[in-house]
């Protein structure tokens, strides 16, 4: 049996390894000059390969497609990914939040390990080979490159999404899927910074801890509520809670945010604190009375939002002004202009519609055609979940595609 795997990223490499180990003749086509270009930049160069948690906990971190992924994640769980790498000689270390990294802290070692396993399994790897077209031809497929047409029994499409297109993920799989009768759910950036209507340039580089960001759609319905660390960029909000938020709001219109700078204090307690501070600093400029509450640059920004001049004396601040200040501290408002573009989005949400794909990753339109990894309409939060999805779906497709050869793909 001949299987062509299109794309040499995380999902394609695992598919190729397990298909070849099961006895298939495997050809892996990659348009770049090397394998795993995206893996190289994952986890800030350290590659967070998976998340060492139970599958049910894992599924809580899947934003789209958790039901669809359930079976593949149970079949090839985080523990299986860890076993795969350790058996291949890559030592791993588990860090905060169950995030698993190579002990060497080098993503390149993950790529090398996968590449070694590909060679050992006897996969025919063809680099600098872009696939232009995939044609279904009865019970077989024709995979067209600029140089040749490869006839095969099965095709595994592992071309990724459209995030960080410089790594080779340029959405080619959507084109193949569409031509083969599949629907594409509109791809949108996920785990991406949020660009705001408000000018926050003056806050660029400022990071905040223990804040709460709540997002609302155009009808005022809460879309997400995230607590933790955040960072201001020149164009808006980034950092962990902003990235997570992006994955929950990327299909909504008229999105607004409210940032609670003091989530540990409810309004009543915060007001009591303000009154106490004001009482103690009656003759101070307001700016100097509120500076204990937040970093300097944010202090100026908050006072501006509350429409209180920085140099106004505390004893002349009106009740209305105090109420506006309280509101700005608890509900600092931002409006979404747009999400940062795909060039800055860690993953792509949307892609090949999972309604037309079986839990084995096989197309419901063409037997023998498989879609794995980020090309599918699935996405998860940060923490090693997206690579695990690539590995689990890649394994699932390989296992199913080779089931008639025998059950020896371990
Ligand atoms: C900056 C960044 C950091 C990240 N960090 C992490 C992390 O630490 N942990 C984590 O779990 N996830 C992380 N992710 C997400 C994760 O990297 C991806 O979800 C995962 O790599 C997707 O794997 P894939 O195999 O589906 O697709 P890709 O990695 O996109 O691979 C697709 C491959 O297909 C090739 N290809 C495309 N079209 C064609 C064609 N026509 N012909 C031939 N080849 C083709 C491409 O060149 C590419 O090599 C990160 C992503 C980014 C951008």
Describe what you observe in this structure:
With 410 residues, this protein is α+β, with helices and mostly antiparallel strands. The chain folds into 2 domains: 2-189 and 343-401, FAD/NAD(P)-binding domain; 193-340, no CATH class. Helices cover 33% and strands 25% of the residues. It is built from 13 helices and 21 strands. It has helices at residues 10-21, 37-41, 55-60, 66-75, 78-87, 107-121, 172-179, 240-249, 267-280, 286-290, 296-305, 319-330, 385-401, and strands spanning 2-6, 25-29, 50-51, 62-64, 92-95, 99-102, 124-126, 133-137, 140-144, 149-152, 154-157, 184-190, 194-196, 207-216, 222-232, 236-238, 256-260, 332-339, 347-352, 369-371, 379-380. The longest helix has 17 residues, at 385-401. The structure holds flavin-adenine dinucleotide.
Please supply descriptive tags for the structure shown above.
410 residues; alpha+beta; 2 domains; six-stranded antiparallel barrel; five-stranded parallel sheet; binds flavin-adenine dinucleotide
| Rg from Cα | 25 Å
Number of domains: 2
For the record, what is the CATH homologous superfamily label of the largest domain?
Answer: FAD/NAD(P)-binding domain
Bound molecules: flavin-adenine dinucleotide
Helix content: 25-40%
Q: Extract low-pLDDT stretches.
A: none
Number of strands: 21
């Amino acid at each position: 049996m001949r299987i062509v795997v299109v794309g040499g990223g995380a999902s394609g490499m695992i598919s190729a390894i397990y298909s070849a180990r099961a006895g298939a003749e495997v050809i892996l086509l990659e348009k770049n000059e090397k394998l795993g270009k995206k893996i190289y930049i994952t986890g800030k160069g350290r590659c967070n390969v998976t998340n060492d948690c139970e599958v049910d906990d894992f599924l809580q971190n899947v934003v789209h497609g958790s039901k669809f992924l359930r079976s593949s994640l149970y079949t090839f769980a985080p523990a299986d990914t860890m076993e795969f790498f350790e058996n291949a000689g890559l030592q791993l270390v588990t860090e905060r939040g169950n995030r698993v990294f190579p002990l060497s802290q080098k993503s390149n070692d993950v790529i090398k390990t996968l590449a070694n396993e590909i060679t050992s399994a006897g996969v025919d790897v063809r680099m600098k080979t872009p696939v232009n077209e995939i044609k279904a031809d009865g019970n077989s497929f024709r995979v067209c490159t600029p140089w040749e047409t490869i006839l095969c029994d099965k095709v595994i499409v592992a071309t990724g999404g459209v995030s960080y297109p410089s790594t080779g993920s340029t959405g080619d799989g959507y084109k193949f899927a569409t031509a083969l009768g599949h629907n594409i759910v509109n791809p949108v950036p996920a785990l991406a910074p949020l660009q705001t209507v408000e000018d926050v340039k003056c806050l660029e580089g400022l990071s905040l801890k223990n804040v709460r960001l709540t997002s609302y759609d155009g009808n005022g319905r809460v879309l997400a509520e995230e607590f933790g660390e955040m960072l201001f960029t020149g164009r808006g909000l980034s950092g962990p809670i902003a990235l997570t938020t992006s994955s929950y709001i990327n299909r909504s219109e008229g999105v607004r945010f409210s940032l609670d700078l003091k989530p540990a204090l409810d309004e009543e307690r915060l007001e009591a604190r303000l009154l106490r501070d004001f009482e103690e600093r009656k003759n101070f400029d307001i700016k100097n009375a509120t500076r204990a509450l937040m970093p300097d640059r944010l202090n100026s920004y908050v006072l501006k939002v509350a429409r209180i001049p920085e140099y106004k004396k505390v004893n002349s601040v009106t009740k209305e002004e105090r109420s506006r200040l309280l509101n700005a501290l608890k509900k600092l408002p931002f409006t979404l202009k747009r999400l940062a573009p795909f060039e800055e989005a860690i993953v792509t949400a949307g892609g090949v519609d999972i309604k037309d794909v079986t839990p084995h990753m096989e197309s419901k339109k063409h037997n023998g055609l498989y879609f794995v990894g980020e090309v599918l309409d699935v996405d998860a939060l940060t923490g090693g979940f997206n690579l695990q999805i690539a590995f689990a779906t890649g394994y699932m497709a390989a296992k199913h595609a080779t089931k008639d050869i025998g059950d020896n793909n371990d």
